[in-house]
Amino acid sequence: MSTAYKTVTDIAGPLMMVEGIEGVTYDELCEIELVDGSKRLGKVLDARSDLAVVQMFEDAKGATTEGTKVRFLGRTFEIGVSEDILGRVFSGSGKPIDGGPEIVPEKKLDINGAPINPYSREYPDDFIQTGISTIDVLNTLVRGQKLPLFSGAGLPHNQIAAQLARQMRVLSPEEVEKGKGISDEQRGESDEKFAVIFAAMGVTFEEAQFFQNELEKTGALSRAVLFVNTADNPVVERIATPRLALTVAEYLAYEKDYHVTVLLTDMTNYCEALREVSAARKEVPGRRGYPGYLYTDLATLYERAGRVRGKNGSITQIPILSMPEDDITHPIPDLTAYITEGQIYIDRGLHQKGIYPPIIPMGSLSRLKPKAQGEGKTRADHSGMDAQLTAAYARGVEVRELAVILGESSLSETDKAFLKFAERFENEFIRQGPTENRSIYESLSIGWDLLTEIPREELKRVKDEYIDKYLPKK
To answer: How far apart are CA 94 and CA 268, in angstroms?
Structure first.
């Protein structure tokens, strides 16, 4: 039986100071028994010769220095895992909240995970079809990639995330060989196992219900795991929530051969929780009050995505963050962009026009897309189409701004062609329904149809052989 210490000397927010301790280590889990007999979990943030700083995972309401007992458990925060975890909903601290039974674990895993040897990583190069044209053609998602959604308050990032969770899949060899989409009957049964894991941090109850309902509609909930930390839950719990989700993802991917997609929303709420705890610890603040170790802490989460040599499974990570005041230079998106392999930028201007999904090519980037585009992955013309559509739309937007100043009558015929292209691009290529699931080949066909608006001599980023083959005749 471990020793129960009654030497709590100070309580500051979620932090508790315990004196006179022996043999306590950093990150060790502890059980806190309050005067009324209720028990809370906590972990050691700092351990010195005879003093421990304990962070409570639950509400500190009712905790007092007199009569509170702290028992150190000699282990780190762990979660019990088995394949029975699929289809379940848990709190941000890993407790079932769907009315189902407790999970009978096959094993227990430390939520902090284990670092992956860089040498054992495989380069991600498998194209993932999301059914969203602006992602599939222009910002291709790759299996094992970490690709965040950069959004803002009031933008439909949660709706896009739910659509991704429903629609993401890898093309069959038959589709790649034929260079066109095929029906589910032609595709046949896949031997691959897929799972989706949501970690919701500081969200509203309505947002949490939205994710669950969206997955239930399509029957995808049976292969999903949800960890939900709502806005009224303890702030400190938010720090553990993504780690619980990623630990389950690593178990399913590397031990059970699942291809796992992890959606983390909202990383801004996670970083705010870090800042609050850092302030309670009286640490020296960094940029905008966030702790100086924010970059390192985010990296410990983002770098848990990928493919490992010798393992059949993979982890694809899609963090979602709402940029405060739509400021892309804010520390959270700024540091995230350094660590991850690009970003999908959700544009407020497109959203105000009523265009869904409002994903704009300018500002969006997938650094791994060259390896997942082209012959053997999608289609030979994909890479050139990506460059041509982005360049044509950028010029069309530029011409639109020029027309506001000079008037449309002052534009050349070529400029008017690019202006018309930009309008059609937004309304036919970017715009699609929230349940519309386009194949990559449908998206490429739409792109080729739009290029008929532009004079052939302006198509400088696609090869002539592809123009002859795919460009519709006017």
So the answer is: 21
Token pair for residue 329? Answer: 């230079």
Beta bridge partners of 349: none
Burial class (CB in 10 A: 0-12, 13-18, 19+), 80: middle
Please check whether residue 324 is in contact with residue 155, taking contact to mean a CB–CB distance below 8 angstroms.
no
| 224-239 pLDDT tens trace | 999 999 998 888 889 9
Look up residue 240 and give its two tokens: 């553990």
- Number of Cα atoms under 13 Å in the Cβ half of residue 227: 29
Which regions of the chain are under pLDDT 70? 1, 180-191, 474
Q: How far is Cα 123 from Cα 205, in angstroms, rounded to an integer? A: 38
Write down the mean pLDDT value for the chain.
Answer: 90
Contact 347, 363 (CB under 8 A): yes
The three-class DSSP label of residue 470 is: helix
SS3 at position 146? strand
- pLDDT of res. 183: 55
Cβ-based neighbour number of residue 125 at 10 Å: 17
C-alpha torsion sign, points 456, 457, 459, 465 = positive
Q: pTM higher than 0.70, yes or no? A: yes
Closest among 291, 287, 299 to 340, alpha carbons compared: 299
Contact status, residue 144 vs residue 306, Cβ threshold 8 Å = yes
Q: Are 89 and 212 contacting, i.e. CB atoms less than 8 angstroms apart?
A: yes
- DSSP letter at 370? G
**What pLDDT score does 117 carry?**
83
Tokens (6 digits) for 36: 């009324």
Residue 45 belongs to what H/E stretch? strand 39-47
> For 199-282, where are the alpha helices, taking DSSP H only?
205-217, 237-254, 267-280
Residues 229, 200 contacting (CB under 8 angstroms): yes
Peptide bond into 96 cis (omega under 30): no
**Nearest CA-CA partner of 165 in 195, 188, 136:** 195
Cis peptide before 266 (omega within 30 of 0): yes
CB contact at 8 A, 247 and 82: no
Q: What is residue 461's three-state secondary structure?
A: coil
